[in-house]
């Protein structure tokens, strides 16, 4: 497939490189031209607009930050939808509200274009090593068409159902990760109050049954959320807020996991 890629950040950049390395013709576009400079050696071509990128693509992958970014690069006379031919596919790798993907899919369908919501988990290092988790929602046949591209950077591609299902799963993943942060940070604080050195406790917890991805992320900082808050606090706050909206609309129980995630956000707010 000819692939267009928009969103060359810490995770999207390695994904784009993996696509090119797998032999797929790759077209790039970025709002800031300097973001394209590191990719001069990967054989990709550069488009002067999202529409031009889409016109040269069968599949357009979006790895931008949030809902507004997705809507901006897709819509308008210079947006992806204006250039993508019927039968083309937009894969939304960004973590956004499921309703954003549903609305995009409805609009795209009027032009004969398919939408797959395909948020990813694992981070930049996992992307570079080709072991991301892709959580896909959309028509089964369309997801299968995209698999050769997804497999370039993914260790697991899971099809979870109709459009929006991938986003729901990713938001729940990030909710639980945030809740784990609260539990882990609290354990370090409690250990200190009980006379256990934070660094030594980190060695114990990361090598014991209590270990988790979240715990491993903050153990090098002796359980402090300060560094994580600076780098990911706003994104986690966005995702927990999206889950809160989904819970409210569905009339579902908030549960302990939502409360724990909100506790983590409160702890991170102290470092803003």
From TrEMBL:
<dbReference type="InterPro" id="IPR013328">
    <property type="entry name" value="6PGD_dom2"/>
</dbReference>
<comment type="similarity">
    <text>Belongs to the HIBADH-related family.</text>
</comment>
<feature type="domain" description="3-hydroxyisobutyrate dehydrogenase-like NAD-binding">
    <location>
        <begin position="164"/>
        <end position="255"/>
    </location>
</feature>
<dbReference type="InterPro" id="IPR002204">
    <property type="entry name" value="3-OH-isobutyrate_DH-rel_CS"/>
</dbReference>
<dbReference type="InterPro" id="IPR006115">
    <property type="entry name" value="6PGDH_NADP-bd"/>
</dbReference>
<dbReference type="Pfam" id="PF03446">
    <property type="entry name" value="NAD_binding_2"/>
</dbReference>
<dbReference type="InterPro" id="IPR008927">
    <property type="entry name" value="6-PGluconate_DH-like_C_sf"/>
</dbReference>
<dbReference type="InterPro" id="IPR029154">
    <property type="entry name" value="HIBADH-like_NADP-bd"/>
</dbReference>
<dbReference type="GO" id="GO:0016491">
    <property type="term" value="F:oxidoreductase activity"/>
</dbReference>
<keyword id="KW-0560">Oxidoreductase</keyword>
<dbReference type="InterPro" id="IPR036291">
    <property type="entry name" value="NAD(P)-bd_dom_sf"/>
</dbReference>
<keyword id="KW-0520">NAD</keyword>
<feature type="domain" description="6-phosphogluconate dehydrogenase NADP-binding">
    <location>
        <begin position="2"/>
        <end position="161"/>
    </location>
</feature>
<dbReference type="Pfam" id="PF14833">
    <property type="entry name" value="NAD_binding_11"/>
</dbReference>
<dbReference type="InterPro" id="IPR015815">
    <property type="entry name" value="HIBADH-related"/>
</dbReference>
<protein>
    <submittedName>
        <fullName>NAD(P)-dependent oxidoreductase</fullName>
        <ecNumber>1.1.-.-</ecNumber>
    </submittedName>
</protein>
């Amino acid at each position: 497939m000819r692939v267009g890629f928009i969103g060359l950040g810490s995770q999207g950049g390695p994904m784009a490189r993996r696509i090119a390395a797998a032999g797929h013709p790759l077209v790039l576009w970025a709002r800031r031209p300097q973001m394209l400079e590191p990719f001069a050696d990967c054989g990709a071509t550069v488009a002067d607009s999202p529409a031009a990128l889409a016109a040269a693509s069968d599949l357009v992958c979006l790895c931008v930050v949030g809902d507004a970014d997705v809507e901006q690069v897709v819509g308008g006379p210079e947006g992806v939808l204006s250039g993508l031919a019927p039968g083309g596919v937009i894969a939304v790798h960004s973590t956004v509200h499921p309703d954003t993907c549903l609305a995009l899919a409805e609009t795209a369908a009027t032009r004969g274009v398919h939408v797959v919501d395909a948020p990813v988990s694992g981070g930049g290092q996992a992307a570079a090593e080709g072991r991301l988790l892709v959580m896909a929602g959309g028509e089964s046949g369309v997801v299968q068409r995209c698999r050769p591209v997804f497999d370039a950077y993914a260790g697991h591609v899971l099809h979870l159902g109709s459009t929006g299902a991938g986003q729901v799963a990713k938001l729940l993943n990030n909710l639980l990760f945030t809740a784990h942060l609260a539990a882990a940070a609290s354990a370090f604080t409690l250990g200190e109050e009980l006379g256990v050195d934070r660094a030594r406790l980190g060695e114990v917890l990361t090598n014991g049954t209590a270990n988790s991805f979240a715990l491993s992320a903050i153990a090098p900082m002796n359980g402090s959320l300060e560094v994580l808050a600076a780098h990911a606090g706003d994104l986690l706050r966005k995702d927990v807020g999206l889950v809160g909206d989904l819970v409210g609309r569905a009339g579902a129980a908030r549960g302990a996991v939502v409360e724990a995630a909100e506790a983590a956000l409160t702890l991170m707010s102290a470092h803003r």
